[in-house]
């Protein structure tokens, strides 16, 4: 950030009175420009036969690696609405009965990733602009070396654990 | 937002190619300025005798109403670190053993509130610049009419329910 988004004057970095961290502040209009982590929200779509849906990324980063449907939560929506929207956009699946199963912080990237288990109402799914392949995988057949992101890998492993353990939400972080 | 924070030129509102929502875009440097929901992270601190800690707000909004320690998650920290930091800042309590118990979206405010149950190691707590009173409450003695925010009320009620129900994370939203 170089300029105040309110008045257009150059910003400076300093700790406002009563605050404990340096911020981008505008000495012209007194605006304080906070920066906060962003939420990635997504799903683990489960087909009627128990297989789970994965998408092969059609865009960088990690193009052609497999991932769960997920993306940035937008203003004006809930975490669940965002997860279902991304699932539709990336796999043409309309997920049902969302249950939160993982919350993973990435402090080095200023992100928090949240995943919901959702039921697929049927076996319908399809490729999209964001996914050049979409397929269902048996739980013992997940292509681990080709999974795009560590938060997706951890969420999938947590989903596997939930098959034999009492329910809990994975709450974890990945440092670097 | 009126000006590009990168180059200082005026921004316009339009939907970038391949996107599905209007954004603030800069036609001078091609920057796209996304806006995303912010996370409020906090705790339900539980004393060794089972009483829970509440803080009386020393600042607007809802000054002098009772709340749980919570605040905006900062870049560079995890949801848990943010919750523990806010708990320390607002009540001088060092929470232990955090367990996520609620995730509540507020789409009208572009916020997501997350609360962790934490153990207090002892009965030490204190007022701070943000809390003009801090006190422990028996579960049947919570001052419901004086609770500051609906997400705090829902989280406290969920915590009460968890005394008699199998564990689950409240995942909810408040529309307006
Ligand atoms: Zn300014
Ligand atoms: Zn610009």
TrEMBL record, chains A, B:
<dbReference type="InterPro" id="IPR029401">
    <property type="entry name" value="Nudix_N"/>
</dbReference>
<feature type="domain" description="Nudix hydrolase">
    <location>
        <begin position="36"/>
        <end position="160"/>
    </location>
</feature>
<dbReference type="Pfam" id="PF14803">
    <property type="entry name" value="Zn_ribbon_Nudix"/>
</dbReference>
<dbReference type="InterPro" id="IPR015797">
    <property type="entry name" value="NUDIX_hydrolase-like_dom_sf"/>
</dbReference>
<keyword id="KW-0378">Hydrolase</keyword>
<dbReference type="GO" id="GO:0016787">
    <property type="term" value="F:hydrolase activity"/>
</dbReference>
<protein>
    <submittedName>
        <fullName>NUDIX hydrolase</fullName>
    </submittedName>
</protein>
<dbReference type="InterPro" id="IPR000086">
    <property type="entry name" value="NUDIX_hydrolase_dom"/>
</dbReference>
<dbReference type="Pfam" id="PF00293">
    <property type="entry name" value="NUDIX"/>
</dbReference>
């Amino acid at each position: 950030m170089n300029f105040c988004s309110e008045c257009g004057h150059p910003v400076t970095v300093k700790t406002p009175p009563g605050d404990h961290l340096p911020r981008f502040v505008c000495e012209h209009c007194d605006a304080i420009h906070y920066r906060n982590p962003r939420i990635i929200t997504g799903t683990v779509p489960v087909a009627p036969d128990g297989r789970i849906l994965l998408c092969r990324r059609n865009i960088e980063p990690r193009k052609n690696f497999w991932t769960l449907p997920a993306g940035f939560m937008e203003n004006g929506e809930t975490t669940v609405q965002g997860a279902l929207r991304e699932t539709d956009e990336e796999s043409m699946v309309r997920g049902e009965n969302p249950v939160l199963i993982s919350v993973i912080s990435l402090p080095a990237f200023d992100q928090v990733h949240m995943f919901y288990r959702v039921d697929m109402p049927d076996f319908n799914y399809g490729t999209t602009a964001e996914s050049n392949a979409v397929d269902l995988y048996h739980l013992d057949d997940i292509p681990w070396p080709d999974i795009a992101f560590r938060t997706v890998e951890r969420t999938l492993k947590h989903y596997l654990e939930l098959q034999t353990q009492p329910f809990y939400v994975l709450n974890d972080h990945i440092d670097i």
